[in-house]
Amino acid sequence: MDTPIATVMPDTPITPSSPSGNRELMNLETQPNKRRRKKSIVWDYFTVETVDAGCTRACCNQCKKSFAYITGSKLAGTSHLKRHITMGICPVSRQKNQQTPNTPSTKPGSVTDPPKRRYRASPGISSISFNQDRSTQDIAKMIIVHEYPPHIVEHPAFIDFVHTLQPQFNVASFNTIQGDCVAIYLREKQRLLNFISGIHGRVNLALDLWSSNQSVGYAVLTGHFIDGDWNLHHRVLNVVMVPSPDSDVAFNQALASCLSDWRLENKLLTLTLDRSFSNETINGNLRGFLSVKNPFMLNCQLIKGNCYARVISRLAQDALGAIWETVDKIRASVKYVKTSDTHEEKFLELKERLQVPSTKELFIDDQTKWNTTYHMLVAAHELKEVFACLETFDPDYKIATPTMDDWKQVEILCTYLKYFFDAANILTSPTYPTASVFYHEVSKIQAELTQAAMSEEPFTSYLTKPLKERFDEYWKDCFLVLAIAVVIDPRFKMKLIEFSFSRIYGEDAGMWIKAVDDGLHELFHEYLVQMLALPDTFMDEGLEVIPKSEASREETLHAGNIEEGTPQEHSQDMSLISIGDGLSDFEVYISEDTSGQPMRSELDQYLEEFLLPRTQDFDILDWWRLNQAKYPTLSRMASDILSIPFSTVPTDSVFDTVSKKIDSYRSSLRPVTLEALICAKDWLQYGSLSSDSQ
After folding, report:
1. Which residue among 27, 253, 378, 635 is the one 20 to 30 A from 57 at the CA level?
2. Rounded CA gap, 297 and 571, in Å?
3. Tens digit of pLDDT for each residue in 481-513?
4. Residue 592 CB-density burial (10 A; 0-12 exposed, 13-18 middle, 19+ buried)
5. Which domain of life does the UniProt lineage start with (predicted)?
6. Residues 316 and 370: beta-carbon distance below 8 Å
């Protein structure tokens, strides 16, 4: 029996100096604490026995064997007692558990029943009422977010699991849950549509083609745009089945659906595809289509026919293919080590004996992801000394070992794969990169391949010449957009173009620099014309509503520099502009007339100012947000340019060597259901949009 704990009345102070205080303190120290009630299930099978002072043991009720429980101040716990019962260590328990199936079991709670885990309900859980509709919605959301098959609601094991959790829940049918998934999609689509309609900038589209086991393809269109708070967004907008992916007009209908669904007519700036599923004929048809649907898109000059990620992937595959026999040798050796614990132990033992300092771990690559092959080669190259000696150390190792020349080629190969990996890796960051980021990686690859192709080292030249020829095609297609995007970065402007082009083009750099400068001014001219042609009032991001007459007047006099004026300055001499008589080009002409006192445009003023220092934490979107009042037209152009996507593939497919594929189950669903599942998953991961219209 536990001894009661001594109590001290609050009104009776105790001091160590008083005799009564000493006695009370001694009494408190010598009295054992009252132990809380034992809750472990093992005490149904054990009895606590006191052996002597300071020693308590637990005795099995079946076999009478005793176990340590409390010795002095040490508590042995109950884990060893549970093992005695549940693992058949107790001879009596083991004998009873060996009963034949026809022998009636002992009564519940006997030693043959395994201890049951006791669960404690979460606080307040009993106060939550069951809601059938909400639970059904949660299942639909679960199916969308985790890509579970909608038919899961008809799987017997899932139904049993749900009924175990909540017997009252009536699991919905496939048709019902399919309808709920589509309803979530439609609700989120309306929210996104309201949000996109509220932005003042343009939308850039990326079009990718996913394959299937059937003969049909799926066009996946992703919109990229910057909102009024200068946040970059990218959302999957449409997933459209393409019955004949090889047709010259295969993507016209998909693009038409996207423009119509999201009200993007006259709001599209660029379209990015990839040549793996497009060609000049397809691109030409799309240009003709967009020239009608989207006449202000610079005559469709900004259709880009190469996906950045896929170009990098093809370069990497070509580089690996240049020495595929050596790569296969290394893969076989790595597989030998990693598929047997004994082989790996011998390999690590040899590594220690040779004192190889590498900390990298070997792993077998996934040949559908080229970056895993690159990392496998890097790790194997650091351990090449171990592989060279493995044959003499491990008699079972009979695989052809790469020679020293092979390892030298692997080292050169990995040097260029590193450039490709770094270039592709920017697409895997948690936040999608702005368009200004891509120029650095692309120009670096272009410069390195240009230099390497002229190398006197035979293998380097052999490896990089074909890569340069392939990459030249991408550079020719995209250099203008890439360059304009980096000029928008106030840390670089045209200075970086001049610097990098001199490395790439040498004496011919001037011609290419002029092409960028001309293209930049032409694009700014387009935006200036559009700003002058806006309706009577417009809302610039972060600015007050500016009357059209004032904006036109100041744009005309200062070529895009809007300054605050007094009401008396709002004359009617610009009234012709507000009625839309087609003289906006004339206003641009007189603003650029150099016969009088020359006025610098926003663009020229921006380019002539000093570069900002290059800092790691620079936020280009935040800089333009803070400077949009200074550069109203140029900031609108920057907003559109910085959201241009150079890649068409999702983040998880950046390093893929094959195109993304819809599995057989999903391709068997109705097209509207498939589109709902893919789009809604993409939208739900970003949470709610900051729009009052939601």
Report:
1. 27
2. 33
3. 999 999 999 999 999 999 999 988 889 999 999
4. middle
5. Eukaryota
6. yes
Q: Is the pLDDT of residue 290 over 60?
A: yes
Element (H, E) at 315: helix 308-322
Q: Which residues of 32-46 are buried (b: 16+ CB within 10 A; e: fewer)?
A: eeeeeeeeebbeebb
Of the listed ranges 88-102, 120-134, 476-490, the one predicted with least confidence: 88-102
- Phi and psi at residue 497, in whole multiples of 5°? -60, -45
Q: What is the pLDDT of residue 539?
A: 40
DSSP-assigned letter for residue 656: B
- Alpha-carbon distance of 160 to 689, in angstroms, equals 37
Q: How far apart are CA 644 and CA 302, in angstroms?
A: 10
Strands 268-272 and 303-304: parallel
626-673 confidence digits (pLDDT tens): 999 999 999 999 999 999 999 999 999 999 999 899 999 999 999 999
Q: How far are the Cα atoms of 332, 377, 398 from residue 327, in angstroms, in the given order?
A: 9, 8, 17
Q: Of 320, 335, 276, 367, which is closest to residue 463 (Cα–Cα)?
A: 320
Instruction: Read off the pLDDT band of 274 (50, 70, 90).
Output: confident
Contact 169, 130 (CB under 8 A): yes
Tokens standing for 89? 């260590």
- Side chain identity, residue 660: K
Bin 452: left if φ > 0, else alpha if -120 < ψ < 50, else beta: alpha
pLDDT in tens, 344-389: 999 999 999 999 998 899 999 999 999 999 999 999 999 999 999 9
pLDDT at 61 > cutoff 90 = no
What beta strand segments (E) does 3-112 contain? 46-52, 55-60, 66-71, 74-75
* CB contact set of 665 (below 8 Å; sequence gap of 6+): 149
Q: Residue written as tokens 């519940």?
A: 108
Decide if 326 contacts 668 (C-beta within 8 A). Answer: no
In terms of DSSP H, where are the helices of 39-90? 79-86
> In the block, which residue shows the tokens 């000059």?
301
The rounded distance, in Å, linking the Cα atoms of 240 and 410 is 43
Using the 8-state DSSP alphabet, how is residue 399 labeled?
S
Of residues 298, 224, 226, 264, the one with CA closest to residue 639: 226
Rounded average pLDDT over 671-679: 96
Residue 126 is predicted with a pLDDT of 54
Q: What is the DSSP letter of 573?
A: T
Assigned token pair, 116: 């049951």
SS3 content of the chain, % helix, strand, coil (to 5): 55, 10, 35
Whole-number percent of the chain with pLDDT over 70: 76
Distance of alpha carbon 526 from alpha carbon 528, whole angstroms: 5
**Residue 506 near residue 569 (C-beta atoms within 8 A):** no
Q: Rounded to whole angstroms, how far apart are CA atoms 624 and 630?
A: 9
Check if the beta carbon of residue 16 is closer than 8 Å to that of residue 22: yes
CA dihedral over 676, 678, 681, 685, signed as positive or negative: negative
CA distance 556 to 587: 6
pTM of the model: 0.72
- Three-class SS state of 42: helix
Residue 236: both structure tokens together: 């999957």
Is residue 346 classed as helix, strand or coil in its secondary structure? helix
Phi, psi of 49 (to 5 degrees): -125, 135
Give the integer Cα–Cα distance in Å for 343 and 321. 29
